[in-house]
Amino acid sequence: MTDDGARVEAYGICNRGDGKSVVFDHLEPAENIIFDAYWTRFSSQFRGVSPLATALNTIQDIHEGMEYNQVKAKMHALFGVAILRDAEAPTMGGASGVSQETSGTASTDSQTELDLNPTDINMLDLNPGEDLKVIESGTPSTEFVNGSYLFIQIALLALDIPVTAFDSRRSSFSARIADLNEYEVSVDSKRTKNRYVRQAYSDWVLANLWGSAQWRLGDVADRYGMTLRDVQEAVEWIPSGSPWLDKYSQLKGDDLGISIGLDNAIDAARRRGGDVFKNLDKQAEVIAYAKEKGVPLLTGRSGVRSIEEVITEEVEKAVEAKQAEEQPA
User: Helix/strand/coil (H, E, C) string of the chain?
Assistant: First the structure.
């Protein structure tokens, strides 16, 4: 439904019903409907464009091509053996045929078909001018595989996904890391749009729950001196993060970037889908438990002082103590 200004006023929400037809359920105001994961190109556009729109035909062609090649391979499997006969070659009994031995039992009757047992050893005694050819399927061909690989890569690029995510065997380890870095850069704009949309959604949810008797968010916020906007700003949507590819090397890079001020622990943890504050809380629980049990727990790297720093600090403390003792009362 649209108003006079061609702006969407409400959306008709339907259920699938019996699976064959939809059943109208209700009208939902447009301000309650949020769409994400699509591209908008025009200010007047209210129907989203999927990022897969440029790859739909390619994906359909790949699907059909794979089906046809599977059918072709099955057809080749149905015709496993072919007997090639010379039409002018003399045969036993005056007719084209083949003498076969199956499981060691000889048969001299002229036959036009082979009665082979796939579960036993088959011995064939061919006549002069006859040849045996095993039909082997070259399906899918190398050309089809290479072409499909290119089409799959094009389809993946529609979602900014590198082809190494599909087939890591064709790339080196360093190239996979480079692809992951390029992916993080290319999807940043889409993540930003989704984050704004999800933030608008969570703001709407919290506003509707603010005065609800079930949640009583307003009472909790008043207790801590918070407003509705404070609660909404406390909700933050972050990406799920990327897995480690080389944890040791990547941690060394993060450590170096943090130490010289080019990075920080918050962003470094978020890149892997973690939360540095939750990590510290959990680590504090572990340290407290280890101390309670009397178990020494070695911690290091981040924030660890060197031996020189410890010695220097102890020397300075000793000098200050000595100077304090020498001062007259």
Answer: CECCCCCECEEEEEECCCCCCCEEEEEEEHHHCCCCCCECCCCCCCCCECHHHHCHHHHHHHHHHHHHHHHHHHHHHHCCEEEEECCCCCCHHHCCCCEEEECCEEECCCCCCCCCCCCCCEEEECCCCEEEEECCCCCCCHHHHHHHHHHHHHHHHCCCCCHHHCCHHHCCHHHHHHHHHHHHHHCHHHHHHHHHHHHHHHHHHHHHHCCCCCCCHHHHHHHCCCCHHHHHHHCCCCCCCCCCCCHHHHHHHHHHHHHCCCCCHHHHHHCCCCCHHHHHHHHHHHHHHHHHHCCCCCCCCCCCCCHHHHHHHHHHHHHHHHHHHHCCC
**Residue ranges covered by each domain of the chain:** 10-53, 81-134
Within 10 Å of residue 55's Cβ, how many Cβ atoms?
19
Nearest alpha-carbon partner for 29 in 227, 208, 199: 208
Comparing CA positions, the residue from 246, 249, 299, 239 lying closest to residue 274 is 239
62-to-67, 222, 310 alpha-carbon distances in Å: 9, 58, 65
Provide long-range contacts, Cβ within 8 A and 24+ apart, for 324-328. none
Q: Please write the tens of the pLDDT for every residue from 9-62.
A: 888 888 876 667 778 888 888 777 665 545 555 555 556 667 777 788 888 888
For the CA atoms of the chain, what is the radius of gyration?
Answer: 37
Report how far residue 165's alpha carbon sits from residue 183's, in angstroms, rounded to the nearest whole number: 10
The gap between the terminal CA atoms of the chain, to the nearest Å, is 90
pTM, full prediction: 0.50
Q: Tell me the pLDDT of the chain averaged across its residues.
A: 76
C-alpha distances in Å from residue 126, one per residue of 32, 92, 93, 94, 272: 80, 11, 14, 15, 68
